[in-house]
Amino acid sequence: MSGRRLDHTAEAFAFIEELDRLASPQEIIDAMERSFARFGFENFIMTGLPHPDQRIESLVLLKKWPLGWYQRYTRSGYDRYDPVIRLCRQTVQPFEWSEARYDPEANPKAALVMHEAAEFGMRQGYCLPVHGLNGFEACLSMGGSSPDLTPRTKPALHLMAMYAFERARLILAPSPRPNPLTPREREALRWAALGKSAADTGEILGVTERTITAHIASACQKLSAANKTQAVAKALQHRLIEM
Q1: CA-based angle 125:126:127, to the nearest 5?
Q2: Where is the HTH luxR-type domain (predicted)?
Q3: CA nearest to 29, candidates 70, 58, 18
Q4: For the domain bounded by 183-237, which CATH number is listed?
Q5: What is the enclosing helix (H) or strand (E) of 227?
Q6: 3-172: what CATH class?
Q7: What is the pTM of this model?
C-alpha cells in the first residue's frame, strides 16, 4: 500500500475522530468544509430526496452551497430535473456526477441544471446515495471545480461522507440504542473498516469467506444499511465497534 493511500486512510479516520467531538450541525459543516477541501471539494449538500409532494428545502440536513445557487435551485424546483438526484434513486453505489447520464436534447432542463451548477464553480462532483431498508432515501453530494477523484481517494471519501451523514442525523435526531451486533459481526465490520476483504478477514479469524460475508450481511440488515460501507459508518458512529 502506498504512502499516498495511507494518507487518505489517515485523513478519513482523523475526520471521524474529529466528528465524534462535535455537538452541533454548524461544527459538522465546518469540519466537512475543511476535510473535503483537501480533496478539492468546495461545496456540499446533505439532504433527503423529496417525493413529488415535497419540497427539497424541507429535507436539507446540512449544506455549504453558494447562496445564489441554492436559491435558484430550490425556487426553480431543479431537483425534479437534476440527473444526479435521478441516479441517486437508482443506485446505492457512490458515483461521479459525470456518470449521471442524460440526453440534453430530450432533457434540456437536466442540461440546464448541470450547466448552471458549473457557473457556480461546481463543474465536477461526487455523490453518495443513502438508502435505508425502510425506504428512506437521501444523499450527500459534493462539488468543485477540479476535485481529486481517483480509485485511491474514493473509498476514503465514501467512508467520510457516510460517517458525516450518520453523525449529522444523530445530532439532529438523537436516538440511543443497544448494540444489536454479535461479537463476530463486530469483528467482521471492524476488519472491513480497516480495508480488509471478506477473504482477508476470514483468514484472520480462521473462518470461511462465506461466513464473513454472512456476518456482514446480517450486520447490514440489523443496522438498516444498504451496503458494507454504510454499516461500518453506522457502527462507528454509534460506538458499536471499536478501532
Answers
A1: 125
A2: 174-239
A3: 18
A4: 1.10.10.10
A5: none
A6: alpha beta
A7: 0.70
